[in-house]
Amino acid sequence: MPNSPLLSLVFAAPLLVAAPAHAKPAPKAVDLSKSVTDVRIDSPAGEVTITTATGQPYRASIRARESGSNSSDSFLEACQALASIGVQGAALVVKVAPSTSSDLDDCSYDINANIPANADVAIRQYGLQASLNGDFKSVTTRTNAVRLLLQGHATALSMESQAVDADISFAQVNHNETIDISSKALNATLDFGGAQPISYSAEGVASWVDSQLPSTPGAKPSIRLKAMSVRATIR
Questions:
Q1: Interatomic CA distance for residues 76 and 70, integer angstroms
Q2: What does pTM read for this prediction?
Q3: For residue 71, pLDDT beyond 90
């Protein structure tokens, strides 16, 4: 089954092209403590990288990046002025304020964070390219289009979008995991290292699932894929 035309169209958008960013404003950054257990990101399009590396400082930053033809110093500085990052209680909060000027509609951002393991991560972003590497309690994304690379572990993964392209690879399986992905167009690869048992369901007008693992009702990891067009590989 070929890749969904909707997926191809959405991820051809300039906001999600993985091109070098040469943003000139200095990033806004914050040092984190081991008490951070919650990450909340609310921003327009851009790239998010989150790790849980114990050998590196816990730290997070946001920086405006070049977007399409808008790369002037004044544009990047205006975009950067909309961004805020800080710690509220046990939560890392990254936000971009709404712009009053249509000239800033194309603002996009690079967000990087190294956080303690077993945190809850929630990302609300119009167009998202995300790389998550580590051990997470939960990962939630609410987007219009998302390309996600998850390597490590998440006890719960929930994604809602118009278009999803996900590559999920678990370093360990505890058999308490749930994965719920809802979209119009969905392309996903899920690798559990052959761990059994698992359960999965795929709901779609056009559905194609290539699984080397049988589905055992009630077992976990539990995988639910729902979209008009579903293409999934499970290992």
A1: 8
A2: 0.88
A3: no
